[in-house]
Backbone:
């Protein structure tokens, strides 16, 4: 019987890598994990037929999208928690995100974006994220299987969608079709059951305060809920379910950073705690 290889996938834009939410100084620069593995940018940030290369997880150089270093993000919190659980099998983490990139035509997650790959930090990185993500997922799944392991996807966690708040609401009717195409491509790439978790985006109050049309947020979150209703392998994650959510706190609500847009460190930690609790039930 093959040994299970739990895999966490985190895709999206700035909230996927906790932009603007640095780790505290005492939590930076820790040595690589020994029981949690990930894909360093070199040599994996490429369209390639070669097998992926796994290394012990660190919070440096492990996002195959834009450079996003030492941030208090969901993958980093889960990696550190998992490292302290010797009864769980080793974990594999795949991360791809670039800030300010949605899924509609002018953004890097758009399924039909011309293939290109220019690495670098936000503002420099120019990557066709959908074909890269499919390429990486296929190579990763094939590599694990070739080593006699059985990839078990804990979930593809999508922390994206915010950038479509800048798209006229009347043009958002394309979203269901685009997400169906993304899901189909990712599922074909991994070749095993792929649960998908869609994280609802920021508050309508925040949108109104910066001059956005709050109908865009309503539409995007409704699309996420509709996708979950039609597909039992798709779920919605609402940050407002955090125990510290405070509806009376303007804009920040207890779950966002002071900018009212990026999720706070403790919110990412709560996501990780939830995933770990589910994994313990599954693998013990």
Residues:
């Amino acid at each position: 019987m093959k040994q299970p290889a739990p895999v966490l996938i985190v895709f999206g834009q700035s909230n996927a890598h906790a932009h603007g939410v640095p780790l505290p100084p005492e939590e930076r620069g820790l040595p690589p994990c020994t029981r949690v593995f990930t894909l360093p940018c070199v040599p994996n940030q490429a369209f390639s037929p070669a097998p992926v290369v796994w290394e012990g997880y660190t919070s440096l150089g492990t996002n195959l999208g834009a450079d996003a270093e030492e941030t208090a993000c969901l993958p980093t919190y889960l990696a550190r928690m998992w490292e302290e659980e010797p009864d769980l099998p080793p974990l594999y983490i795949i991360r791809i995100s670039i800030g300010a990139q949605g899924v509609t035509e002018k953004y890097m997650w758009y399924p039909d974006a011309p293939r290109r790959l220019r690495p670098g930090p936000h503002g420099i990185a120019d990557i066709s994220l959908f074909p890269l993500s499919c390429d990486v997922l296929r190579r990763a799944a094939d590599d694990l299987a070739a080593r006699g392991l059985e990839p078990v996807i804990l979930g593809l966690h999508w922390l994206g969608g915010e950038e479509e708040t800048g798209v006229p609401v009347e043009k958002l009717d394309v979203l269901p079709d685009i997400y169906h195409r993304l899901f189909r491509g990712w599922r074909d790439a991994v070749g095993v059951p792929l649960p998908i978790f869609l994280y609802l985006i920021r508050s309508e109050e925040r949108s109104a305060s910066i001059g956005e049309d709050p109908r865009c947020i309503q539409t995007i979150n409704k699309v996420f809920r509709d996708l979950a209703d039609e597909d039992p392998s798709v779920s919605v994650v609402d940050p407002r379910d955090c125990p510290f959510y405070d509806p009376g706190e303007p804009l920040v609500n207890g779950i966002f950073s002071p900018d009212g847009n990026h999720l706070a460190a403790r919110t990412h930690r709560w996501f990780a705690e939830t995933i770990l609790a589910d994994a313990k039930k599954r693998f013990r």
